Amino acid sequence: MSPVGEVADAPRPKEWILGIHAYVPGKSAGKDGRPLIKLSANENPLGTSAQALAARTAPLAPSLYPDPDSKDLRKALGDLHGIAPERIVMGTGSDELLNLAAQAYAGVGDEVLYVRFGFSVYDIAARRCGATPVIAPDRDYGTDVDALLASVTERTRVVFLANPNNPTGSYIGRSEITRLHAGLRPDILLVLDQAYAEYVAPEDADGALELAASSANVLVTRTFSKIYGLAGERIGWGTGAPAIVDMLNRIRGPFNVSLTAQAAGIAAVADQDFVEASRLHNLRERTRFVAALEALGNHGLRPLPSEANFVLIEFSGKLTAEAAYDGLMEHGYITRWLPGQGLPQCLRITIGTPEQMDDIATALRTMAEAAQ
Ligand SMILES: *Cc1c(COP(=O)(O)O)cnc(C)c1O
């Protein structure tokens, strides 16, 4: 039964671990190994704050363990967001925290719920702890709160929602998030994954941080991997009720945020000008790119509404998503084609520099016209 083979005396992985497919990261090179411009992993095209770069190359003492509690970084985040540092837990990327949330609150016989086209890590997080992943139907690729609530059963323990969502870019506002939370039993943990929250205009915030501050069953996760431009340092954080933070602190890696990561993170938080410049760059370029794509509507291209730093494009005309993916690769760009996530008709493209976005829009137009 096991693909690992029938060796009698070999260690046998748990059944639920065998069901896991490894996370597929965004590629950075083409089939022939030639380097490509990477617009496949939602990294920041402006790079990293100069202050954060300077902090991680300042003299540090790598022979010593880092602060196990990331105290200064939690204080910096707490000051920025108005959160008591005791209510903040750090992770090796928010990925660690998503996995720990499932592990702490779900197990064999329990259900972990999320929307169709949700972030692919949720499936892994659910299966890692032996829980059953349950998928609620989407509404035209977006989050359907009614469908989520209708999919809750007495076995549901954790609900994951990325808002904005990856890979769709879809977003639901404050009233919908409030309605979702109000419709869940208080013993269900609602994990609001805000990896892209800083890209949303402040006046459109979904209120997740307020819910985490006022509820006993909400965990909000955020990351330094996207707008802060520190994906390589692996820093994530979460906030919620003290009991939730305490539980995650018990099971996280003891020194889970490295020395350079803590130094870079503190400097990055201090440089909100870089964050704001990144948000405005993204808004400007995403708006321009979406307009260019909308002009290709007669060729079957449809950009889905996005509040994130990428756009998911649906292809329903002669030019297929796969052909566009290959064509853009020929053109020097790696984007994200997602057949493994049930989206063979879609391509996800990270917002890059103005020149890159113009170049890609032109290449898509040329390919779409040639396919007619
Ligand atoms: C990129 C991303 C993350 C961040 O992962 P890290 O482990 O913090 O790098 C989390 N959630 C979603 C939905 C993402 O797209």
Automatic annotation (TrEMBL):
List of residues that carry N6-(pyridoxal phosphate)lysine: 226
Cofactor(s) this protein requires: pyridoxal 5'-phosphate
Catalytic activity as recorded in UniProt: L-histidinol phosphate + 2-oxoglutarate = 3-(imidazol-4-yl)-2-oxopropyl phosphate + L-glutamate
GO MF annotation: an example: histidinol-phosphate transaminase activity
Gene3D superfamilies per UniProt: Aspartate Aminotransferase, domain 1, Type I PLP-dependent aspartate aminotransferase-like (Major domain)
Domain Aminotransferase class I/classII large residue range list: 35-364
GO process annotations (BP): L-histidine biosynthetic process
Recorded superkingdom: Bacteria
Family stated for the protein in its record: Belongs to the class-II pyridoxal-phosphate-dependent aminotransferase family. Histidinol-phosphate aminotransferase subfamily.
Assembly and binders: Homodimer.
Name of the protein this chain belongs to: Histidinol-phosphate aminotransferase
Gene that produces this protein: hisC
